[in-house]
Every structure is written in C-alpha cells, then in structure tokens.
Amino acid sequence: MRMSSKRRLISSLFVVLLLSFVVAPLYVMAWETPMVVAGQDKHSYYKPEIGFAPSGAVYIVYRDKDNTTGDSDIYMCYYDGKEMTYENVSNAAQLFTRYKCYESDIEVTSDGKVHVAWMTHDKDLPDLHFIKYRYKDGFTWSEVIHLGDMHMFPEDVVFDLRLGVSNNGNVHVILQEEHETIIRYVAKYGDTIIPVEKVGDPGSRLKHPDIAVDDNYVHAIWMRKIGFPYVIMYQKWENKLGGTKGEIKQITFPEGEYASQKSRIDVDSEGYFHLAEFYKTGNLKKLKYYKELPDGSLTEYVNLSHPQNLMLYHWAALEVRDNSIIGTMQLGSSSGGNGIYYNWKKGETWGGYSAIPNTDGAVHQSTDLSADGEIAAVAYGRYDTAIMLVSSEEISATGTLEVEFTHPDMVFWDSDITFDASQCAQLNPDNTIVSYEWDFGDGTTETTTSPTVTHQFDTYGTDVRVTLTITAESGETGINYRDIHIHALYNGIITKVEKMRVRTLFHNRPANEVQWTDNPMNEQAGYPSITTYEIWRAPVNPGITENSMARYGIRGAPPRSVNPVIPEGSYVYVAEVDANVTKFLDYFGLQEGIQYVYSIRSVDSEGHKSPFDNI
Q1: Is 615 contained in some domain?
Q2: SS3 category, 391
Q3: What CATH number did the domain enclosing 544 receive?
Q4: Are 63 and 70 in contact (CB under 8 A)?
Q5: What is the pTM of this model?
Q6: 551-603 confidence digits (pLDDT tens)
Q7: Number of domain units in the chain
Q8: Are 343 and 476 contained in the same domain?
Q9: What average pLDDT does this structure show over 218-234?
Q10: Quick check: 550 pLDDT over 50?
Q11: How far apart (Å, rounded) are the C-alpha atoms in residues 274 and 271?
Q12: Residue 474: its pLDDT value, please?
C-alpha cells in the first residue's frame, strides 16, 4: 500500500555547495511512488499526455501498440485515486483492417469535458493519415470527428500533435509533418471545420509546434531554421471563426544561443502567454522560462534547469495555474533518460531545480496541475515498455459523493428492471441525499427522491450506459454509471411454412402449416429454459416479391436469413404450444390471397418473451 505523503516545506534555506556552486532548492516535494498505468507484455507504449479533471482525478491518453498485430490504438486511463479504468478512444478496428493510431493529445476544459485528438493511418493507403478528434461529456463520448486528411510520403508520420480547446468549445490542432518539416493547423468552431492549412513562412524548415488557447485568443509557437540555428517563432490570432491573425514574431535570445528540442507554451487567466524553451550553447542545454508582459514583450528569463547548464535534456513541459507554475524536463537521452526534474513556482518564488524520485528511464513526460495549482501530476513512458504516473501528492477526486447502485445480473428487454441506490446513504453518512437522477441510456431519464426506480428498456441486443447522479442537501453531487447489456430471448427458427387448404362439409379455408426448431442461441446465452412457444402472424406487404417471400420462410423456403420489416402492431396472436411442439396448423382467420409471415416467440420459465424479429 502506498503511504500518504505531505508537502514538506523547507523555508528560506539556501545552501551553497562550495565544490559545485549549486544552489539547493527552496522547497522539496515528497513525491508519491510512481504507479504503472499500462505495461502489458508484447505491447509498446508511446507519448502519454495527462490532464486534471476539475474533481481532482486525472486522465492519461497514450498510444498502445500491439506488437503481435502491429496495430495501434489510443487508450485513455482515468484515475480517481482509488482505481484505474480504461477506454479505447480511437476504436480504429471498426473502420480499418490494418491501422496505426498515434500522436494523441488531451485537453480537459473547466466544465469537465475531456477532449482527445490523434492521428490515424490506414496502412492500406500508405500516404494518407487522418486527423481525428472526439470529446467525452460526463460518461458519454461523441462520435469520432474527422478534422482533416494529411497526404504524405510513404512511411512518413506526424510529429508533435498538440491540442488546444477553449472553454467555449473551439478546437485547435497544430502538428508537424515529418518529411517536409512544415507545420499544419486545423480548427473546429461549433460544427464548422476549417480545412488543414500551413502555418509559418513558406519554404522554411519548421518543426516542434505547440499551442495554447483561451476563449479570446490562440497562441502558437514553433521552431524555424535560419541558417544553422533554429529560432522560436510566435503567432497569436483571434479564437473565433474568421478571426484576425497577428504577425509572426521571432523570440529573441542571446548571441551564441540557439533553440533546441521542443518548446512549450501556456496561457494564464489574464490572457498572457508563458513560455518554456530549451536553448543550447555548444552541447549544453538549459530550460528558460518567460512570461508575456502587457506591452507584448517578455520578462527576463528564469533558468528552470540546472544552474550551471551542465546537463542534456529532452521533453520540456510547462503548466500554468496563475500563481502556480511548473516546468519539467527529462534528464538524459530521448530514448529513456536519467529521471525527471522540475522547477515549481508557488506564489512569487521558484522552488529550485529538483528531481522527481524514482523516475529513471523516463521518456516523454507530460505534466499538469490541479485546478487549484496545489498538486502536480506527471505521466511518462518508462522506455517504451510502460506508461507511468507520479504525483506530488495522492490523487483524490474530492468534493464528490460516492455513488453505487445495483441491478439484476441479467437485464431483459421486456421486464421491469429495479435499480437500487440505497447504499448511497451508507456511503455518504455525513450527507442527506435529496435527489436521484437516472439516465437509462435509451433516451429516457427519471428523477426521484427515492433510491429505487424501475424501468423497462425499449431496446435489446445492445449495451446501454445507465448513469446515476445524486445530489445532497449541501449541493454536493456524485455520479456513477454501469454499462448494461439488454438481453432478449431468441425466437424459434422457422424451417418451413407450407400453404394448404382445410376442407370440411361446411367450408374450404386457406391454411398454413408452420414448422420450426429450437434456437440454440438461448442455451448458449445461458437464458432460462424455454417452456412454451407463442405463434404470431402478420400479413405481408402486398408489394413483396416472390424472392422476398422465400426469404421469409413462405412456401417451404429455407429458414429466414433476414428479418422481415413487419411492424409489431401488424402481428396477431394465434396460439401457444408446449416447448416440445415444433409444428402448428394455422387455418382460423386467414384471408384468401394474402401471404403471411410468422413469428415463433420463445417464452421462458421466468416469463420473458422473445421479440417478434429476434431470430
């Protein structure tokens, strides 16, 4: 069990080490022990990106490559301090047979919505890559939204995809195309998607972009090669459809220094941007921090890295929460370094260059701060074999009520299902629950003051997400959900419908002899035993063709291969027989010249019935 840690503040302590001239950090955080987020055998993991939820939980997205198939998907881990849950965000197997999803990024907006963007490569179209995006609102994901195409040289990839989403819902993606070393940008304003466009000077060698947004402006940076060195370029534009773009500016730096690696930008609540960028002198690097001033100029830089610049760094990260600002950097090579280091400003004072313990082998760290700026969380790769999470304090989704509810193990479509949330009162003894809001995932909702509710679903053969939100007298809320499969019995399988006539002294009637077999799917699904069958019939649409009638099992045709489009209201009840009966002669009430379709509805020992068309 991990031990709870508390921040240890060593105030006003400046220790000069005479041999190395290194200034000791002003305060040192006792970080938690790193946790494994993902580390399955025969899988490789890349580019973790982290975001804090307003509740204090964290989301981590990353690329998960199956080394057996070679395919990659984007996964997201949610961690609330108690357990980790996972979702496949990209679900590329639904659209492609051979694919690679990669280069994901995440943004969690102040309303709690989770936004994810990534690249998808169809391996059967080697020069085509797709920019994808979707968001999660509560427990519901949007559809995967296609933002644009990237036509590139075979085997080329996209680097440094960065996502920015403002609280008004505008979506911005900036990225680097590998071969041409150019920057591309795409935006989504409401339902309007701005086509993919180039950013920066035409013909220049550009790389390593980043983006930060608020409701008013978009801030972008990238590296541009001028002669031998690279410089940092900056551009700002209005965050609205058709917004005006400002001029491209070069970030100045001292003579003899030039840009190296990946710079990072963030924006504070007042709209000023903050910048962390690697600069290189000879073979040495340092991570510099700047803040924009009201006149558009920058403050003097603060060195976030080792005071003597004696280190080799990769993967900068910068997060700003007004009076809490943190910069992190990976010490060592890009393929797996010697740990993660940070410098954290709280209030007016930077804490100093410090190590995050037990992070050897780290690669591509991503950092975020909690909404109040008090907790830092870092996701990173451990080489390519695992995704790790470390935080300055225990992660805890505070300020929410605990929610649990129960339901039957097997939920049938034609039954009144009881959902019971009585244990919520026991889980929250200091709160009085005043409302239970149920979303049944089938388009219906219900709010009650009682912890129990009954509901009958109008769908079957699918999964629904039942979500419960509870509210206490204090105004605190809690939310939880269950993914539930809606079951339905399967019909008996019709093997033959033979037309005949029933002749007596008094009448000569049309008749149909219906034959069927038990449906093995009921036993395979573990459903209760079938006790009886109900025979129902409906007139077939007069426009139906002979071929279609054969498919419906009419005139001695084989079993139905498709479900007839027959409204349920068209069916009439004919008879009920024991489960061991597999033949029935229907002759009462048939009309001359009318074709009929039949449904053999299964009835089990608990009273469940199959739908009319569930073959």
Answers
A1: no
A2: strand
A3: 2.60.40
A4: no
A5: 0.70
A6: 444 333 333 334 445 665 688 999 999 999 999 999 988 988 888 999 999 99
A7: 3
A8: no
A9: 85
A10: no
A11: 10
A12: 87
Whether the CA torsion 212, 262, 281, 204 is positive or negative: it is negative
Among the listed residues 297, 300, 222, the one whose alpha carbon sits nearest the alpha carbon of residue 254: 300
Q: From start to end of 152-216, where are the E strands? A: 158-165, 171-177, 182-189, 192-199, 206-213
- At 560 the pLDDT is 39
What are residue 126's phi and psi, to 5 degrees?
Answer: -60, -20
Query: Does residue 92 contact residue 75 with C-beta atoms inside 8 Å?
Result: no
Query: Does residue 426 sit in helix, strand or coil?
Result: helix
The Cβ-side half-sphere exposure at 109, using a 13 Å CA radius, reads 21
Please name the amino acid found at residue 101: C
Q: Tell me: do 227 and 373 sit in the same domain.
A: yes
Q: Which residue has the tokens 């149909």?
A: 512
State whether the Cα torsion 301-304-308-313 is positive or negative: negative
Spatial separation of the C-alpha atoms in residues 562 and 566, rounded to whole Å: 12
Mean pLDDT of 174-201: 91
Contact 597, 612 (CB under 8 A): no
Asked if 122 and 164 sit in the same domain, the reply is: yes
Nearest-angstrom CA–CA distance, 484 and 136:
19
Domain of 477: which CATH number? 2.60.40.10
For residue 615, what are its two tokens?
């073959």
In a domain, 584, yes or no: yes
Cα–Cα dist 406/16, whole Å: 61
> Which domain range does residue 506 map to?
493-604
Q: Using CA of residue 542, residue 546, residue 552, residue 555, what is the dihedral sign?
A: positive
Helix (H, G, I), strand (E, B) or coil at 300: coil
Q: Is residue 357 domain-shared with residue 455, that is, in the same domain?
A: no
182-189, strands of its sheet edge to edge: 158-165, 171-177, 182-189, 192-199
SS3 annotation, 116-150: EEEEEEECCCCCEEEEEEEEEECCEECCCEEEEEE
Q: Which two tokens stand for residue 600?
A: 């053999």
Element (DSSP H or E) covering residue 543:
none
Mean pLDDT of the residues in the chain: 86
